[in-house]
Amino acid sequence: MLTINEKELLKKYFGYDDFRPGQADIISNILKGRDCLGIMPTGAGKSICYQIPSLLFSGVTIVISPLISLMKDQVDSLNDVGIPATFINSSLSHSEYEQTIENIVNGVYKIIYVAPERLESSTFLKLLNSIPISMFAIDEAHCVSQWGHDFRPTYQKIADIILNLKVRPVVTAFTATATEVVKNDIVQLLHLSDPFVLTTGFDRTNLSFSVETPSNKTDFVLNFIKKHETVSGIIYCLTRKSVDALYDTLHRLGYPVSKYHAGMTEKLRAESQEDFVYDRTSIMIATNAFGMGIDKSNIRYVIHYNMPRDLESYYQEAGRAGRDGDTAECILLFSRADIVSNKFLIEQSSGSSHRPEYDKLNDIVDYCNTDKCLRRYILEYFGEIPLFDNCENCGNCLSEMEITDITSDAQKILSCIKRVNERFGTGVVTDVLKGSKSSKIQSLGFDTLSTYGIMREYSKDTIKDLIYYLITEGYIDSVGDKYPILILTPLASRVLFEKEQVFIKKRVEKMPTASNEELPYDVNLFETLKAIRREISETYKIPPFIVFSDTSLKQMATYYPTTTDRMLQIHGVGANKVQKYGDDFIEAISNYVRENGIVADEIIIPKSVNAKKETASSSPKEESYMISYQLYCEGKSIDEIAQIRELTTQTIENHLLKCFELDMEISLEKDIHMQFEQDVYQAIDALGVEKLKPLKEALPREVRYFDIKYFLIKYAK
Q1: What is the distance, to the nearest Å, from the Cα of residue 659 to the centroid of all Cα atoms in its chain?
Q2: What is the 3-state secondary structure (H, E, C) of 566-623?
Q3: What's the CATH number for 402-510?
Q4: What is the pLDDT of residues 174-208, one digit of tens each?
Q5: What's 394's DSSP letter?
Q6: What are the phi and psi torsion angles at 113 (to 5°)?
Q7: What does DSSP say about strands 133-138 and 257-260: parallel, antiparallel, or unpaired?
Q8: Residue 292's Cα: distance from chain center in Å?
C-alpha cells in the first residue's frame, strides 16, 4: 500500500493526482526491496514506476536504456521537473564525460541512464562498485530474449554485471510487449529473484486500429495527410528506398516532412529526429530504425506503409501514437507484396533456423486478413482474454460488412489442394485454378486435373485473397519456411464432405473513426498556448512536449486557469513546471479571458480532469456486465439473458467470465463442459496460453471458446 509520501511526490514532480493502473502495485513492491517485472503498454507510465522509488531510496538508480535518444529525452524531462539525472553514452565529449563521472562520484544525481554496452567496461564496473546503488531498472527488457522482436546480445550480459556488484540492488525490468515465452526469458536471463510480475493489459483504448488495402498506397497517404495537416504523425516503410521515395513526394508537395533510416549519416538522422521532436516538421517517414524510446507524446497517427514482420513490432511501433492519452489512429496498409518482401528479409537475416520468424509473419498476415475485431486479435495474440466481442473502435468493428457465401469457391480451392497431394504452395494452386498454360503446370500433369481452370474467370489476386482468407479462418495450413506448402486442416473436410458453408465478410463502407469523449476545449486559446510552448521550447532547447503535453494545453484551454493554484489543478502540471513556465501561460490565459469576456473563476476544475473520460469509457461496460450478472443470479439462462438484453450469447458469456475473474459470487459450472477440464489443462501445458485458436484446434469439437476461457481463468487462479 502506498503512503501519502509517494502520491505527494507524484503531484509535486509530475503534476498527476493519481497513479495509473499497475504503477502503485509495482512501486509498493520496489520499495519493499522486491525485484519486479512490469509489462505495460506504451503510454502506461513505466518510467514513473522506477522514478518515484528512486527519489525515496538513499542511493542512486541505474537505468539501462538501449537508445541515446531515449536517454536524452528522459533526462531532459527529469531535470525539467527538478529531479537530478544524467546519462552516459557515446554522445558525450571527453570533457562532458569527465564532468559527469565527477558528479556521479560526488552524489549529484538520483538517476543515471546507461547504454548496455557501457556495462562491458571494467572501468565502469569499478565506478559502479564505488557508489551506493539502490536499484537497477532495465528498460525495453524484451531485448534480452532471442524470441523478442528486438534481440540485443549485450542485454544478456546485464545479469552478470549485477552479480559482480558488491551489494545486489533491487532489479526491475520493464517492457511494452512480451509474449509468455519472452516474459519467462526476461525473468530467467536477468536473474530476477522471486519477482513481482505485473501485466496491466495490452489494450490501448485511445488508439483506433485499421487495415487498408488501397490500390495505390501513396495516393492513400496523400489523401490522409490532407485531412491531418495540423497534427504530428509517423509513416513507417519497410525499406530505405521506400522512405526516400515517399519523402521526396511529400517534400516536393511542400509538406513539413522529415525522414530517418540507417542509410543516412548519424548527423542527418539526429537533425531529422530533432526537427520532428521539436515540431519543426509534423511528418516523420522512417524505417523501424526510428522510434524506440521516442517520448514525443502528441503523435496523432502512425501509418505502416508496409506490413511489418511480426505483431510485436507492429504493436510497439503503432503504440507510439497517442502517448498523451488522446485519441490517435493506427493504420496498416497491406498488400501481398509485403509478404514477399518480409520473407526475403527473413532469409537475409542471420540464424540457423527462421521458423519462429515465419510463424510470427503468418500471425501478422492473419491479422491483416481477418474480418473480426482487430483489437481483440491483438489482445489474444499477447495472451489476454478480451471481455468483448467488438471493440467498436477499429476498422472492422466500425465498418458495414457485406456477407458473401463463398462455399463453392472454397470447395474448389480445397479440392485443388487435395488433388495436388498437399505438396505445393499458393502460386501453383492459383495457377492450376486459373488454368495456367505454364510449362511447370503441364510438366506436372496438373492441366489434366478436374480442378484445372475451374476459377479461370477470377484474377490471380482474387484467388490468392481467397486462399489467404481460408488460411486465416483455419481451413488451410501454410506449412514450411521459405517455400511453404498448403495442407488441409480437419475443418476443410466439413466444407468438402459435410456441406458446411463458408462466408466471407467484406467492408463495403467505412464509417468515421470513433473517438473517446474529449473535453470541448477552446481551439483558439489552444493554438495560442501552443505558440508560447514552442517559444519556450526553443529558448530552453527542449522538445515542446517536455514543457507541457497537448493534453495539458487542451485542459488549460478548457478550464482557463488564471492563478498558480488553478494551474496546479491541471493534469500533468507540477510545482516545478509552474515555477519555470507558469507565468507565461497564466498571463496568456488571463489576457484571453479578459478580451473574450470569459469568467474563468466560475469554471470548476474537477479534482481529476481525466475523470470524465475515464467514466465515459468504463462505466457503461461495468454497468453492462453487472446487469448480466444480476440476471444470471436470478436464474436466467445465458440465452435468455442474451434475448432480454438484445446482445449476442458470446457477449453475455464474456460478461459472466469477467465476474468469475473478479472473484464475484458466481458458479458457471452448469454452463461449462466440465468433462473436458483435464483435456484443456493438458492442451494449455503443451501449447501455452498465448493464443486461443491453437488450443481450440487441439481439443475435441465440442469444446467451445467459452469453456477454454473459463478454464484459462481457473488455471491462472
Answers
A1: 26
A2: HHCCCCCCCHHHHHHHHHHHHHHHHHHHHHCCCCHHHCCCCCCCCHHHHHHHHHHHHH
A3: 1.10.10.10
A4: 998 777 888 899 999 999 999 999 988 788 889 99
A5: B
A6: -90, 135
A7: unpaired
A8: 12
User: Cα–Cα distance between 600 and 200 in angstroms, integer?
Assistant: 38
d(C-alpha 406, C-alpha 421), whole Å: 23
CATH of 523-602, one of 1.10.357.10, 1.10.150.80, 3.40.50.1820, 2.102.10.10: 1.10.150.80
CB 453 within 8 A of CB 434: yes
Q: Is 258:276 a contact under the CB 8 Å cutoff? A: yes
Q: Which grid coordinates belong to 136?
A: 537497477
Separation between Cα atoms, residue 134 and residue 214, nearest integer Å: 53
- The order of strands in the sheet holding 36-39 is 85-88, 111-114, 60-64, 133-138, 170-175, 36-39, 196-199
The number of beta carbons lying within 10 Å of the beta carbon of residue 167 is 9
Average pLDDT of the chain?
86
Three-class SS of residue 433? helix
Name the strands in the sheet holding 328-333, side by side, starting at the edge strand that comes first in the sequence: 207-212, 328-333, 299-304, 232-236, 283-286, 257-260
Q: What is the C-alpha separation between 371 and 355, in angstroms, rounded?
A: 26
Cell of 500: 458446411
Task: Identify the CA nearest to 142 among candidates 99, 191, 187, 75.
Answer: 187
Q: Are 135 and 176 in contact (CB under 8 A)?
A: no
Residue 54: name the closest of 78, 73, 20, 70 by CA. 78
Over residues 643-670, mean pLDDT? 81
Q: Using CA atoms, how far apart are residues 338 and 315, in angstroms rounded to an integer?
A: 17
| Sequence letter at residue 533 | R
CA distance 264 to 587: 43
What is the CATH architecture of 4-199? 3-Layer(aba) Sandwich (3.40)
Q: What are phi and psi of 478, to 5 degrees?
A: -100, 110
pTM: 0.61
Give the dihedral of Cα atoms 581, 585, 587, 592; nearest 10 deg: 170
DSSP state of 143: G
Angle between helices 638-645 and 649-661 (to 10 degrees): 110
| Tally of CA atoms within 13 A in the half-sphere of 46 that contains its CB | 30
Angstrom distance (rounded) from CA 548 to CA 11: 15
Q: With contact defined as beta carbons under 8 Å apart, do 435 and 498 qualify?
A: no
Partners of 507 in beta bridges? 401
Q: Which fold has domain 207-385?
A: Rossmann fold (3.40.50)
Q: What is the mean pLDDT of residues 484-511?
A: 80
* Separation of alpha carbons 234 and 520, rounded Å: 26
What does DSSP say about strands 232-236 and 299-304: parallel, antiparallel, or unpaired? parallel
Encoded amino acid at 164, one letter:
N
Where residue 128 falls among pLDDT bands split at 50, 70, 90?
very high
> Contact 249/219 with Cβ under 8 angstroms?
no
Mean pLDDT of the region 231-245: 94
- Which grid cell is 24? 502503485
Cα 72 from Cα 83, distance rounded (Å)? 14
Nearest-angstrom CA–CA distance, 377 and 610: 28
pLDDT by residue (tens digit) across 578-608?
888 899 999 999 998 888 888 776 677 775 5
Strands 207-212 and 328-333: parallel
Which three-class secondary structure state does DSSP give residue 3?
coil
Crossing angle, helix 649-661 and helix 611-633, to 10 degrees?
A: 100
Q: 477 pairs with which residues across the strands?
A: 487
Residue 521 DSSP SS3 = coil
| Pairwise CA distance, residues 178 & 39, whole Å | 7
Task: Report the alpha-carbon angle 75-79-82, nearest 5.
Answer: 145
Q: What are the grid coordinates assigned to 693, written together?
A: 485458436
Query: How far is the C-alpha of 237 from the C-alpha of 616, rounded, in Å?
Result: 36
